[in-house]
Amino acid sequence: MLSKVELTRIQALQLELLVELDRLCRRHGLTYSLAYGTLLGAIRHGGFIPWDDDVDIMLPRADYERLRQVCAQELDSKKYFYQSRQTDPEYHFLYDKIRINNTLFKEAALAPHAIHHGLYLDIFPVDFLPENLWLRRWHSWRFQWRRNVLMAKYLNLKSRHGAKWLAARGLRWLFKNYELTDLASEAEALARQSPVSAVCGILGYQEVFSTQILQECVDWEFAGHKLAVPKKYAILLKQLYGDYQTWPASSERQTCHDLVAYQLLRKE
């Protein structure tokens, strides 16, 4: 488990990266928002959740693609590495990361892979979804089974336990002839295929919400900086966390990543 001092250093580096990403998005007119625990931290704590060790943002797919181009041209490559399926051959997640160079934050699930293992920020694309409920379910099912097989084959089996280990083992055997790159490409193609609609979601099927939510973002205080959050953040947070204003029990206030190696070398 990370100490309070280590967590403070981690959050300082992540904040530096987050502020830089905010600058690039504003400079190029890209719509983004804080997401997941980072959004919850902004609203409930005015910054990081005290025990959180990662950062999440989300962008509509079109802006997500543009951000890739912007970062390729303008992100400081001495400090950061933009990680995607295109820039890191053994990276097969369906969303991108920006890694902080000269740091090590190696998770058990990804430990066997020769990828950049630095401290990171997650970047999630938000895709349009079919408005018809049954079409959405069909679309979601096709996407989800590819993603589940991809993760079963990609993530370190030794990091799974119990039913998750058994399920991953079974999927690996059933789909042993499927290539990771093919599964990832098929899943991403499905996530992109729905036309513009009033409904959208992250990873093609999760966290379904109104497209309007991301179209209306406002600045919000986050650790002394103004960062973008949905104007209707309460709808999204209630959907994700229920009573999001209530703190979890003390026993649950822990970092969520299973680390096998950790080191911070950069000077703050």
Automatic annotation (TrEMBL):
GO terms for biological process: glycoprotein metabolic process. InterPro entries: LicD/FKTN/FKRP_NTP_transf, LPS_cholinephosphotransferase. Residues 25-242 form the LicD/FKTN/FKRP nucleotidyltransferase domain. Transmembrane segments: none annotated. This is LPS biosynthesis protein. It comes from the Bacteria.
